[in-house]
Design a protein that fits this description.
The structure holds two protein chains of two kinds. By secondary structure, chain A is an alpha/beta fold. Chain A has 20 helices and 23 strands. Chain B is globular. The chains are: A alpha/beta, B alpha/beta. At the A-B interface, strand 9, helix 7, helix 9, helix 10 and strand 17 of A face strand 2, helix 3, helix 5, helix 11 and helix 12 of B.
Amino acid sequence: MKRIESVNEFVIKFANVNGSGSASANELFAKAILRMGVPVSPRNIFPSNIQGLPTWYEVRVSERGWLGRRGGIDMMVAMNPQTWDADIAEIEPGGYLFYDSTRPVPASKFRDDVHTIGVPLTEISNTSYSDPRQRQLFKNIIYVGALSVLLGVDAAVFEKLFAEQYRGKEMLLQSNMKALQMGRDWVRSHLDVEVGLQVQRADNVGDRIFTDGNSAAALGCVYGGATVAAWYPITPSSSVAEAFQKYCDKFRVDPATGQKRFAIVQAEDELASIGMVVGAGWNGARAFTATSGPGISLMTEFIGLAYFAEIPVTLIDVQRGGPSTGMPTRTQQSDLLACAWASHGDTRHVLLLPEDPLECFEFSAQALDLADRLQTPIFVMTDLDIGMNQRLCRPFAWDDERAYDRGKVMTADELEAGRDFGRYKDVDGDGIPWRTLPGTHPTKGAYFTRGTTRDPYARYSERGPDYLYNMERLMRKFRTAADMVPAPALRQAEQPTTLGVIYFGSTSPAMDEAFEQLAAHGVHLDGLRLRAYPFPESVREFIDTHERVFVVEQNRDAQMRTLLIDAFDTDPAHLVKVLHYDGTPITARFISAAILDRLPASAARPGEAAATAAGPANKEAIA
Amino acid sequence: MTWITKPRMHHPTLGVNKVGYTRRDYEGRISTLCAGCGHDSISAAIIQACWELDIEPHRVAKLSGIGCSSKTPDYFLGASHGFNTVHGRMPSVLTGANLANRELLYLGVSGDGDSASIGLGQFANAMRRGVRMAYIVENNGVYGLTKGQFSATADRGSKSKKGVINSDNPIDLVGMALQLGATYVARGFSGDKEQLVPLIKGAIGHGGAAFIDVISPCVAFNNHSGSTKSYDYVRQHNEAVSRIDFMPERSEITTQYAPGSVVEVEQHDGSILRLRKLDEGYDITKRYEALSYMHEHHERGEVITGLLYLDPLALDLHAAMNTSHQPLNTLGPEALCPGAAALDKLNASLR
């Protein structure tokens, strides 16, 4: 029988029951491999349930550092009888099945092209523990112990991890170590199998950190100076607000008085949460909300008001599968148009497109600056794949000299000195007017904010010329924004090429890997990773200097391509769609296959087959 | 009549308050509402109340939703910042504004359509949270700007101008405010300025969520016979339970009252509410008694007005959250940003 053999390059998937405590055991497993110096990228795959139903954790181990989802499973840890059949079917031929052999499983339930490893996990656990909850929790640690021997992960690494996790909780440390050891001992004394998948010490993690995009975004809001947060719980964004609370409790409580330098409101709905953010922004506090697609839909009226009344607002949209309730626990990049053009009438909004937790941190902090500077809503467009999974990324950095850009706020002194104040007047030529905050001056600078049209001095007016002045100034402001937002990142191919690819956000790690796969097929592409909308001129130049440009995105309707065509009047034939939208994170295999498929046969080196097609991803969706 | 500029001059003998302003300094632009609209009387009462309270106009932020009532903040306190938000959502915007700067006074102006129909959820939740504000609903039971449709506060059996009888039960905002935890609840009538001005003063001085439902007849669409929100109907059925005076600090009682009929209530900040009870058995500190009293009288077709409930020591959302006394919108990086060293430690914990 074929055996998959690989050192430090494989995919292992845990099939669990949610609410069973498997999440922390699985994370422990992933972290242990990281501590061996080998990069991992885990992904939670969890239907919208809380307890008793299936959940998966897929870990890609890759010494080479590929952090995108690979597709295909080399080893399945099958802990959930409900999903057994589908889980077993997913294993690549020659792969491995690890299961709890306490109760006999009929031979027909196994595959003869897969190596089977049975460990009586329940029995081991039940022999040592009598409390049902302990039996359950330690069973998870026992399988981590068993796997660690099979895959060659050092026990010392776990010791250190437990010591860090249970610092000052000696009992817990000891009991976890004991359970881990039970799993290790059982495998050593009972099994004589060699698993072809092995972890060996390497030095490829460096100083990178392992964190999720949602808590990184929350941290960015703390560093960026947000003081008011209003939100309504919605998957997959809730942990942004919860992490903001946690970091504020840690960093923003006055030690002397106990007073809090923040206010967080869990509002009654998304309409109220965006309303509070608008009110706080109007009144000069940095404020944000975090939500997902359905929340954006509810917020659009207020987003239009904030655009037209010119109020700083920061929104973190952790995208999930739409439309409607859609796929609440699956990932997509399908809110681009909903956000870029949110609300009725002619509107344009700034989108920031982070690729990983580090950029979630940086862009959230920057969004607060941009919102103040541009006096408009700024969207941080992350997604479930970045938001709710831990990802290896460069460490967070902050310059202590960095000041907050509060934008054009006219002070009492300036008003007193007789400086002309027209709330909606373009005095600097950049389309951005000056504003005053409530309470600034006893007699000067007050104005009435409204969503109805007005003249440059904020006086109600439905006159056509006043309306046009305002709408054209808003467009001018939007053009100003293009040069303030994070610039796109260019990645030049190793050899000159007429092919280009545009991508953004969580597609990034899969794209990085696809570049290499495609190069092996003789296909070289220049890459442009968009980091924001509106697009600066360099994006137009990139499109114009390549004969064909692939636009890779995770939605059905090619929403980014639509924005590009709209921005530059590009010939649609010039921009080739590469779309992945089944709810699973995009893979390098999918991108490579799709691009090869869309190239004339002569473009790829003859004799080389296309990489494995989108099969695994599709299978995943069915499971 | 917006093309007419309001003359800035005023009579030289016009009184000046303690902060140096005349009553005219509290005015705004000329109203664009219909002549005789109850809302204009409420604007006048707000002007009077702020002048009497010696409030500097720019220390007030006035927020509203959408509708006739919500247009009015343009017609008073011209030196204050105002915000005409979206329909039914003033409470959330006011909440956010209040969180940003706890030092300003917040005036929320809304209507019955704005608060009882489209904005009922936001109204209810702002009351629950105890946001410090004076929330005034200018209640006429009808949609004015869209020409005469019933609103959710129209009484069952009342007749529209076109002759339609309303078959739906009304939403009672006062009852809801009482149930949901508002700590200052009153009802006024735009036609009774003498009662309304002190109610507004008390609401502005209150330490928590203050709500006033002001019956404010719509002369264009809801002032006919058969309406329960007309001037005539309210005048005939008005049952005041109390008259109040509000004083920022204790002062001597100069008017003679029958013994025992006047109660002084000290508020959280030392200000005084002097209450003259018109119904001797009525206790304004009993939330649920207020509710049943009001409902009993409503069943008899009476409109109960006056201060209906007061928790004099009420505090607000900031107190509940223990937010910094210094307004959040004044804090800079030194107070808000944990800095690079903290970040390095955090990085270390994520490896």
